[in-house]
Write a structure and sequence with these properties.
With 186 residues, the protein is α+β, with helices and mostly antiparallel strands. The chain has four helices and six strands. The strands form two sheets. A four-stranded antiparallel sheet has the order 3-4-6-5, covered by helices on one side. A two-stranded antiparallel sheet has the order 1-2.
Length: 186
């Protein structure tokens, strides 16, 4: 039975990874207020090599509409500003010689709907990952059954895998529903 427990534990961990990946992706989706996570994927030219913005500056939100980027080296102001502009996020960074200030524009109704679709697509990707984990786990249990695992233990394992899958899907739905409310709230 320890083999089934291993399969169950692996499935549970993989499904949790899919959900935590979904959470990190949803943090990057803008929901009307400024968040440092919005600039997480920006790569900056740091003396010839591309590095994440977080390696060259600190990013903080001053208020719900303003992000402040404080470079650790003054010489990085211009490359960071260019990287933010070229990321095509709809921001217009303002460089005052010490920090870069980004005013986050209010979301239009159309943009809110687009962001909701994006969030739903992240949710669907997470569900696909969860179903893939279920399929792989079910195949492993069938293989164990061929190798001598009693049928009732195999059926019990399959039922537990399905329970894990259902619980993970419910979590995904809750995250998407919560993000939708956040996006659509003006």
């Amino acid at each position: 039975m320890s083999d089934i427990n291993t399969v169950l534990e692996t499935a549970k961990n993989s499904m949790e990874k899919a959900i935590s990946h979904l959470e990190s992706e949803l943090q990057k989706v803008r929901a009307g207020k400024a968040s440092p996570a919005m600039l997480e994927n920006i790569m900056v030219d740091y003396y010839g090599s591309m590095v994440p913005l977080s390696n060259t500056a600190s990013v903080n939100s001053q208020d719900s509409r303003t992000l402040i980027v404080q470079p650790w080296e003054k010489s990085m102001l211009t490359p960071i500003e260019k990287a933010i502009q070229s990321a095509n996020l709809g921001f217009n960074p303002q460089n005052d010689g010490v920090i870069i200030r980004i005013m986050v524009p209010a979301l239009t109704e159309e943009r809110r709907k687009q962001l909701t679709k994006t969030a739903k697509s992240f949710g669907e990707d997470a569900k696909v990952g969860i179903r893939t984990v279920r399929k792989d786990s079910m195949e492993q249990i069938k293989k164990l059954q061929k190798d001598g695992l009693p049928e009732d233990e195999a059926k019990s394992g399959e039922a537990k895998i399905q329970t894990l899958t259902d619980a993970a899907s419910v979590k995904v739905d809750k995250h998407i529903e919560q993000k939708e409310k956040e996006i659509m709230t003006v």
